[in-house]
TrEMBL record:
Keyword terms, alphabetized: Hydrolase
Pathway linked to the protein: Amino-acid degradation; L-arginine degradation via ADI pathway; carbamoyl phosphate from L-arginine: step 1/2
EC number: 3.5.3.6
GO biological process, any: L-arginine deiminase pathway
Name of the protein described by the UniProt record: arginine deiminase
InterPro entries (UniProt xref): Arg_deiminase
Amino acid sequence: MKQSSFPVPFLHSEIGRLESVIMHRPGPEVESVTPDSAHEQLYNEIIPLQAVQSEYSMLWNFMNRVSNVLEIGDLLTEALGHSEAKRFAIKAVVESESLDGSKYEEVTERLDALSPGELSRAMIQGLDKSASSFQDHLDTRLYDLSPLPNFYFMRDSAMAYRESVLVGGMAHGVRRNESVIQEVVWNHLSDPETVVYSGLRHQRAWPETDIRLEGGDFLVADSNLLIIGISERTSPQAIDALVRSVMNMYEEPLDVLAVNLPLQRATIHLDMIFTYLDQETALVYEPLVTGPKRARCTHGHFALGKEPRFTDYQGLPDALEALGRGVKTVKCGGDDIHFQQREQWFAGTNVFAFGPGKIVSYESNIATIEALSSEGYRVLPVSADEPWEKLADSDERLVVTVPGIELARGGGGLRCMTMPVRRTAL
């Protein structure tokens, strides 16, 4: 059943004025990461929850000033009030734990006994292990249902596009239930046709295929032009499946620029080397976008009833230029290769646009902020007493800087932590 308070997706660009965004306040699930489990849980190191929450609250409060912010946990609780959603959610998350028969039944019963709010918290923060046998007691697992410490990186598990939602197919099992939560929310709080693609659904139906698609690799240049990274987290097969789903839904020509990222920790997603600032400007990590070792790009043009056409380019800027969509680039880290490398690692390109030419950036990426300032961007700290809503609606180019030392150590940036649902048309 569609809820009147739930936003209908409308997203035709990366930089239209932000209206609605889904986020998640980091909670106790972050403290599930230990030095021994950090690598498996996709963290570079452990991070202190109180510091993370303090930094995040400043971002949340700012976003709430310039848009309508929705907490995914609240949406999940609302969705789980529907008995069908609760049954689906419990079955999906328990199956992801690969439990044996008796343990499967036990955990299912434990979850079924929870209220919607309690179940929502368990799906995000984890369900502590219940030792009902010697085997359970001696098992080194701490949880019967694993927590989701990466869930505050909301971008990856679902993406709004046009009037639809695309559910991600996570590359790592420790994040799979993030996509389950998105399926539960969107399938039960929105119109039935809203989800036009689900990588998770493909993974369940065809486990032998290489379906990986995460939102950090997905950029909406405009309604009919997508830029998608082929990376550690997103596969060519997933892009093919996505194209088929989008074409079936909208029946319009579609251009896709697929960027081949090097398989290394610093470039897990496309938005770690390229993000739009406005329609004509992008913030880039120069070595992999415009430098001699730039990531190669393939343009695919798709139209119903016609064979697709593919053209290879030396890099993304060349492909955009060929499509009449050339961009001016601003360098993450400025002109110094040393600072380019340091600030790219610290999510320097991973900024979030809340309007054309208006972005939120980590305050610690000083060389990147100086490069933006030299291009005419006014730099304001998030703590400033400013009329943020008025500034968001102005024509001024703006960089709002937020603290993010601990947030970035979790492995991502400001774009990672936001799932925009509605943006105004350009």
